[in-house]
Amino acid sequence: MTFIADLHIHSRFSIATSRDLDLASLWHWGQLKGIRVVGTGDCTHPVWLGELERDLVATESGLFRLRHAPPQHLVPANCRAEVLFMPTAEISCIYRKGGRTRKVHCLVLLPDLQAAHRLNLLLSRIGNLGSDGRPILKLDAKELLQMVLDAAPEALLIPAHAWTPHFSVFGSGSGFDSLAECFEELTPHVHAIETGLSSDPAMNWRISALDGITLISNSDAHSAAKLGREATVFRTDPSYRGIRQGIIEGNGVASTIEFFPEQGKYHADGHRCCGVRLTPAQTIANGYRCPACGAKVTVGVLHRLELLADRPEGARPENAPPFQSLIPLLDLIGGALKVGTGTKKAQALYFHLLELIGNEFHILRDAPVGLIEEAAGATLARGIGKMRLGEVEIDPGYDGRFGIVSISPLA
């Protein structure tokens, strides 16, 4: 069977996250979005781990369900579905290697909460796990991988948002040129990378060293409403073992759901303080300096990937799963109505569509355009149709500023 999973999220115990990130809210938004399996996030945090133990119960699948689910009437009837949880965490490794400071974020998938306790015992010897849901540790990413395997041989470590400039395995600011340079003899235990919001699979296909590495996508949500802004479609059993094997073997990933990568906030080069965005060629011509003030520019994902690519644009490895780039439904509604996404008008239409048609991913990916037009009018229906065809206009993001993806004309 196929199902959608979002395995990289955060709890309210991570810095700069919403207070609504609790299990009940994730259960609720998982159904609204159409996500079957949600990562718990932050299972390294002792208080959050205690809540997971209190509020979750293991199922035969190796995943977890809520011990006491909220009333189903809180979810539109057309969206109601089972939501399962997997213990996950993101860990920030900051350390010196090869004469440089490295900053690598790693996503960890764990088979059970006992494994989380074992991993936390090892990590607590390195730093304070209670200070942040995403702990920042002076720890080599290779050593973290060994700790993860020691805690649970069935666990997986996946380099998170692998191209983000400042905190990733390939980042322009502090990353490596290959997985082997980072993980050395443990590299065979790294089976996947997370592409991140500023890259998509097509960009990663240009690097032959990533052949055989499964590409997954997740939201890295810092609020429940951002759940599923990227996600992975699995073709396997909805179980820990099924997901793990699907990632290791690669054939368990049916497709991924992506941002348009230009919408990511580190896609292009630039200097946000001066409002300067640059192409890779312009950055090189300016000596990697801002032409307005002379400060160093942030080298974006597109530029960094160009430096490491050994294949031309458009190359695709054999049997590479497809992907689909989507715009969040509320963003499309806001554009169609010419209002902000947080307005009562936009929110009302969003929930009206969920009640009439089904969950957000069904509306964005599968629902007949004619049905959407009947429920919400021609403008929104036309916008969704254009998005499915990739007919979008993009003002690329750079240096921490999200890009703007729009569809014109929507009127």
UniProtKB/TrEMBL annotation:
CDD domains: PfuEndoQ-like. InterPro entries: Pol/histidinol_Pase-like. SUPFAM superfamilies: PHP domain-like. This is DNA helicase UvrD. Gene3D superfamilies: Metal-dependent hydrolases (3.20.20.140). It comes from Citrifermentans bemidjiense (strain ATCC BAA-1014 / DSM 16622 / JCM 12645 / Bem) (Geobacter bemidjiensis).
